[in-house]
Specification:
The protein contains nine helices and twelve strands. It is of the alpha/beta class. Among the domains are: 1-34 and 44-74, P-loop containing nucleotide triphosphate hydrolases (Rossmann fold, 3-Layer(aba) Sandwich), CATH 3.40.50; 86-199, Rossmann fold, CATH 3.40.50.300. The strands form three sheets. Strands 6-7-8-3-9-10 form a six-stranded mixed sheet, with helices on both faces. It has a four-stranded antiparallel sheet with strand order 2-1-4-5, covered by helices on one side. Strand 11 and strand 12 (257-259) form a beta hairpin. The protein is globular and about 55 Å long. Bound molecules: adenosine-5'-triphosphate. One of its GO terms (molecular function) is ATP binding. InterPro entries: AAA+_ATPase (IPR003593), ABC_transporter-like_ATP-bd (IPR003439), ABC_transporter-like_CS (IPR017871), ABC_transpr_PhnC (IPR012693), MetN_ABC_transporter-like (IPR050086), P-loop_NTPase (IPR027417).
């Protein structure tokens, strides 16, 4: 379980990105964090794996106080909490397999680091992860020869190879077309359900968030202003989260919602 207890984050420029966040996320949940640009979604997500440090309060992951750990404990935390990004963060000029193996570098002995020789067990884990996201046949293809959706799957495999308890996904489909976006979302949902890995995602596509996530957290100006089941997200709730923003529109005739 992840728990935020009275968490605040103020950046050095004095922007209060998170204000008094209290939140519990149980193992195996699929959570989408939604809200306007600048609302604090990325900051919220990135405090969980210590990409950002909080200013006050506490973040607990099971028995570990995330904001109190240092050095090798942070590395251990990042093994338990995988992350994928909008821009995939891959080394595009090398193979898919090597990109997945990169996740094992911190575990290598010095001579293996120097020689770049991974263990048989690591190679098996990497190939298994590629199989889990359906791109085992691409293992020896260079990443720059893959589509965006395939690249996001490589990133997902790199995370899965570490056997994480949680996957943080920061706008994972923002740069993908609608069809490919659904493939990536399907992968995440399958992994969430079959492996009981929690998925916590920032996403601007509200329709997709409602379709795939079980729980929606609405953030506005650094505060959680909605936290509930995706079935409880009505047009009124969306208006509360997005205000009269042009980023999100409700069709008054059909009640359908659309991101614009
Ligand atoms: N490194 C930083 N230094 C200073 N201010 C920052 C930093 N990162 C974010 N902010 C500010 O903190 C606030 C929250 O930003 P954050 O990136 O968490 O929002 P977001 O909801 O994820 O936005 P987007 O949807 O555009 O990614 C914004 O006002 C932003 O300008």
């Amino acid at each position: 379980m992840i728990e935020f207890i009275n968490v605040n984050k103020t950046y050095t420029n004095n922007i209060k990105a998170l204000q008094n966040i209290n939140l519990k996320i149980n193992q195996g949940e699929f959570v989408a964090i939604i809200g306007l640009s600048g609302a604090g979604k990325s900051t919220l997500l990135r405090c969980i794996n210590r990409m950002h440090d909080i200013t006050s309060g506490k973040i607990m992951m099971n028995q570990v106080e995330v904001n109190a750990i240092r050095g090798s404990d942070v590395r251990k935390l990042r093994k338990r909490v995988g992350m994928i990004f909008q821009s995939f963060n891959l080394i595009t000029r090398t193979t898919v397999l090597k990109n997945v193996l990169v996740s094992f570098v911190p575990e290598l002995t010095l001579w293996r680091k120097v020689t770049g020789v991974f263990t048989k067990g690591q190679k098996i884990k990497a190939l298994t992860a590629l199989d889990q996201v359906g791109i085992l046949d691409k293992a020896y293809v260079r990443v720059n020869q893959l589509s965006g959706g395939q690249q996001q799957r490589v990133a997902l495999a790199r995370t899965l190879a570490q056997n994480p308890e949680i996957i943080l996904a920061d706008e994972p489909i923002a740069s993908l077309d609608p069809v490919t976006s659904r493939h990536v979302m399907d992968d995440l949902k399958r992994i969430n359900q079959a492996m009981n890995i929690s998925v916590i995602m920032n996403i601007h596509h509200v329709e997709i968030a409602l379709e795939y996530a079980n729980r929606i957290i609405g953030v506005r100006e650094g505060q959680i202003i909605f936290d509930g089941n995706s079935t409880e997200v009505t047009p009124v709730v969306l208006k509360h989260i997005y205000g009269d923003s042009t980023e999100y529109k409700v069709n008054e005739n059909t009640g359908e919602t659309a991101y614009v």
